[in-house]
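Lab notebook, bench 4. Still working through the backlog of constructs that have no structural model yet. Next entry is a single chain of 316 residues. Request: give me the structure tokens for it.
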Amino acid sequence: MGVLDLYKNCRLCPRSCAINRYEFKGYCGQNARLKAVYVGLHFGEEPPITGKNGSGTVFFSGCSLRCSFCQNYQISHMQIGREYTLESICQSVLDMLITHSPHNINLVTFDHFIPHVISLVKTLKAKGIDIPIVANVSGYQKRETLGLIKDCVDIYLPDFKYSDEDLAKALSNARDYPEVALNAISEMLKQKGTLKTCNVNGIEIAVRGVLVRHLILPGYTKNSLDALSMLYCEFGKDLAISLMSQYYPIKHHDDPNLNRILLGEEFEIVISHARELGFTTLYFQYPEANLGEIYLPDFTSEDPFSIKQYKRHCDK
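Model written out:
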């Protein structure tokens, strides 16, 4: 069976919807035709991913998690984007690499297109491309699926969104998220180890390993505190952590907590806990109310990112 046959009875993600995506769309909202919304530079990732030159990102359309608060709602829920053949997406990535010389190729929310991505990465490597490949994912991945891409990926950039099963059910319809994500991160670490960087012109650039992200949700500091404790207990202090504070309400929610941005005092509670646990590599963003909207790209625009650099701080 060829890798593209995996779309016929799709069980790539933990939803295991078993849809024949050659005929219908899966839970992710996508069929078997590759679809992406943006191929280009991004300067809003963590410092070792962004570096000086930026990260060469490919934002794929659709999502298997589809959080109700998704900051990239246009992609995950509205399904915007254009269809690509393997040849055309490969050429778009090559053009980006030639024009901008990014530090890596950053594949964003691609797990529902893994059969195509495997072919894409193999083609790029055959053409001599040897910069790191970043798997920028939700954390809601199956061990078996991660096994399919172990030779295609150098860096895993997963989320760990929830410690609270009820919250995971309410916001992502995925009560099993904590268990699934911990198993996924375990597999990622088994494959690539902790985050490794190298010095490039005075800047530490990631070359291999795992960096786990957590978005602090307003009103849910306990979810964040418990998430950090779970990560520490499971994987220890050497797991690289990125705490994100840029939540912005993209639509009205029934939950009033999600209709506001994160408060400074909420952020301080969470960052203090991370420091108390003793994580040795900790990246974080200070919440600033007047900058909330700049973290929301507009993928209907030719330049989705309105600024070149996001304010980001690094503690090591």
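Notes after review: The radius of gyration is 18 Å. The mean pLDDT is 92. Flag for follow-up if needed.
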